[in-house]
Structures are given as structure tokens and as C-alpha cells.
């Protein structure tokens, strides 16, 4: 079973990968999600656990569903 910190790292890496694929900066993603840029950085680095509501906002910014985001977990 995956530990919470491992999950946070995996989620963060996937967010970073999606962000880079779409050629947007952390600041641009933060603006789309009504978040602080520093929080995006902490999430991407796995230093912050992500709430479901926050993940839903990020998924919406990437124009994808939560289930699509989580399908490989």
C-alpha cells in the first residue's frame, strides 16, 4: 500500500508533467486555480499534501476529470 508521502510525490510529479506538457508556468497554473505559486511548487515537489478540492481545481485547469488524473494510481 502506498504511503501518504509517496502519494503526494506521485501526484506532484504528475501535475508537473502535465503543466510542462501544456507549456505553462507554475504562476500561470496558480492563477488558473486561484492559488499561490508557492503552493503549486510545494505540491509539485511532494512537500504538501493535496486536498481533493485542490486537486479538482488543478484538474479543471488541465481540462481533465479527477478520474482521468487518478487512473494510473
Give an overview in words.
- The protein has helices at 4-21, 26-33, 37-44, 52-61, 66-70.
- The chain is mainly alpha-helical and 73 residues long.
- Helix 2 packs across helix 3.
- The model has no long low-confidence stretch (mean pLDDT 95).
CATH H level: which superfamily? lambda repressor-like DNA-binding domains
CA distance, first residue to last residue: 11 Å
Task: Count the beta strands.
Answer: 0
What is the third-level CATH name, the topology? 434 Repressor (Amino-terminal Domain)
Question: In percent, how much strand structure appears in the residues?
Answer: under 5%
What characteristics describe this protein?
single chain, 73 residues, mainly alpha, 434 Repressor (Amino-terminal Domain)
